[in-house]
Design goal:
3-stranded mixed β-sheet, about 160 residues, 8 strands, alpha/beta, 3-stranded parallel β-sheet
């Protein structure tokens, strides 16, 4: 069990193409930095402008990321990582509420099957589809990796 990076970045800016990296950390267990699991997953090779550690679902709470984004003039975020319906969705909603333009890249998120209170098992694909449904047009643009890296239509036209 590992912790994958959640990559938030602003393409077409003065920042590197790898943006920032946010890791979920805890004092003990698999998300403790001493566990060896809190690292960039292979074969990813990225050189982020900054690395942040968070202990909440939203990457914008208590990590310093929010301050860094403001100080660096970042207004557009690309969200990916683990878990689709928890940290990724929460960060997307939070960022949208703060006025950021957000691209949610579901194909670059990961989650695991879950069983609801009625005993129904939801597959990872169903959870991703549900997450994209509730975010689309309300909190984020749902984008493929290629679309997110290309930028938003208004940025491309500029």
């Amino acid at each position: 069990m590992g912790s994958a990076p959640r990559r938030l970045r602003q393409p077409n800016s003065n920042h590197s193409r790898d943006g920032t990296q946010v890791f979920h950390v805890a004092d003990s267990g698999p998300f403790a930095e001493s566990s060896g699991f809190v690292r960039t997953l292979e074969p990813l090779a990225i050189a982020p402008d900054a690395i942040f550690r968070k202990q909440r679902h939203s990457a914008l709470v208590g990590s310093g990321l929010d301050v860094w984004l403001i100080e660096n003039g970042v207004r557009r975020l690309i969200v990916s990582g683990i878990r689709t319906e928890q940290c990724c969705e929460t960060t997307t909603r939070h960022a949208s509420d703060l006025g950021y333009a957000v691209d949610f890249v579901g194909e670059a998120t990961l989650t695991f099957p879950m069983v609801d209170a009625a005993g129904r098992e939801w597959s990872s694909a169903e959870i991703r589809a549900r997450t994209e449904l509730v975010l689309a047009g309300r909190f984020a643009r749902i984008a493929s990796v290629e679309e997110a890296l290309l930028g938003r239509p208004e940025e491309i036209a500029a």
